[in-house]
Write a structure and sequence with these properties.
Layout lengths: L3 E4 L12 H15 L6 E4 L13 H11 L4 E8 L5 H14 L5 E5 L4 H6 L7 H16 L4 E3 L2 E3 L12 E6 L2 H10 L2 E4 L4 H14 L5 E2 L7 E4 L3 H26 L11 H7 L2 E4 L1 H13 L4 E3 L8 H26 L1
Parallel strand pairs: 1-2, 1-12, 2-3, 3-4, 4-7, 7-8, 8-9, 10-11
Antiparallel strand pairs: 5-6
Helix pairs in contact: 1-11, 2-3, 3-5, 6-7, 10-11
Length: 335
């Protein structure tokens, strides 16, 4: 079955004119509905001190969503581990796994925004060393060990529901992250479309005598919206899509990072690039079948950069009531 994920970052630029309380309430209502309509995973990213009010606390939001759902999986992605005390994060993840009854997966990231590291008093140059050390803390904590960390005795309780704790996928865009995923992770989430990263991960696993874990493939469109009138919907979505792609692209350009988000001069250029697509239900079904056949997951951002929740609901309901049932029927035929 094609995995359709929903991403909520609560990004809310000031020009949108919507209250953050409205976005948060809509996100909770949407995931409760999505839980009953075949969506697979809720993805919850993390950034700090953002001018557009990006969510800094995915575990807090995840707990609220876990309480409103019973089947859909939760994935903080990515937890910027160098910025946090790993013992506190281990406790929070363990209790989130309990609240969700074992529906938790986690992507670990290094982070890359200097202002975030400065706010937490962490040197950006130390991020690789810190993430390695802190990943080892998470692994030992989830295993139920009592151990010493920086002169402290650590024993995390209660234990996670999942044996060994939630799966830890390592995210990143460099070969070093691929090697880290092989050594310390349960799978790999390459954040950019570079086949050499996947090859590096597989080679590192082979060298360690391990079978590769799951490799998350989300190299399709960055966002898909379904509408009976795609041109009218795109006119409303375009400013939000431009904000998202240009914000990520600006961060990456400033720091010399690689990203799948590309700068776009205007709405027409962005639409032509194909990374943000607004489609009819029929065309959406065709695209999602293609993504399924390529072995990809599809990530949707219903509240894209403060998008009107009513417009978001239009797409969600068409996907949940018209597209997902057809994909389920496809699978039944194939089985």
């Amino acid at each position: 079955m094609l995995e359709i994920w929903l991403r909520y970052d609560l990004r809310n630029p000031s020009w949108v004119g919507i209250k953050s309380t409205t976005l948060a309430a809509a996100a909770l209502e949407q995931v409760e509905w999505a839980d009953k309509h075949g969506f697979h995973t809720i993805q919850l990213p993390e950034h700090h001190c953002s001018a557009d009010n990006y969510n800094p606390s995915p575990l807090m939001l995840g707990a609220a969503m876990a309480a409103r759902t019973s089947k859909i999986r939760l994935q903080p992605s990515a937890i910027l581990l160098p910025l946090h005390d790993p013992v506190r994060i281990a406790e929070d993840l363990a209790i989130l796994d309990v609240i969700s009854n074992g529906r938790l997966d986690v992507t670990i990231g290094l982070g890359y925004v200097p202002d975030e590291f400065a706010m937490f008093g962490i040197d950006l140059k130390d991020r690789a060393r810190l993430v390695d050390a802190k990943l080892r803390v998470l692994k030992r904590a989830f295993a139920g060990e009592t151990f010493d960390y920086e002169g402290r005795t650590v024993h995390v309780t209660p234990p996670p529901v999942q044996s060994g704790g939630p799966r830890l996928w390592i995210g990143g865009s460099l070969k070093a992250t691929a090697r880290r995923a092989a050594e310390l992770g349960d799978g790999y989430y390459p954040m950019v479309n570079k086949p050499e990263l996947i090859q590096a991960y597989k080679e590192a696993c082979s060298e360690l005598g391990k079978e590769p874990g799951r490799i998350v493939d989300v190299t399709g469109p960055r966002h898909i919206h379904i509408s009976e009138d795609p041109d009218a919907a795109w006119a409303r979505i375009a400013p939000h899509a431009l904000h998202e792609t240009n914000a990520y692209a600006a961060y990456a350009a400033k720091l010399g990072q690689t990203t799948n988000f590309k700068h776009a001069e205007n709405a027409d250029a962005l639409r032509a690039a194909g990374s943000y697509q607004v489609l009819t239900p029929e065309d959406g079904l065709t695209l999602l079948r293609q993504q399924r056949d390529l072995g990809r997951s599809v990530i949707l951002a219903p509240l894209l950069a403060g998008l009107d929740p009513d417009l978001a609901w239009e797409s969600l309901e068409l996907i949940g009531t018209r597209i997902i049932p057809q994909l389920v029927q496809d699978d039944a035929v194939l089985a």
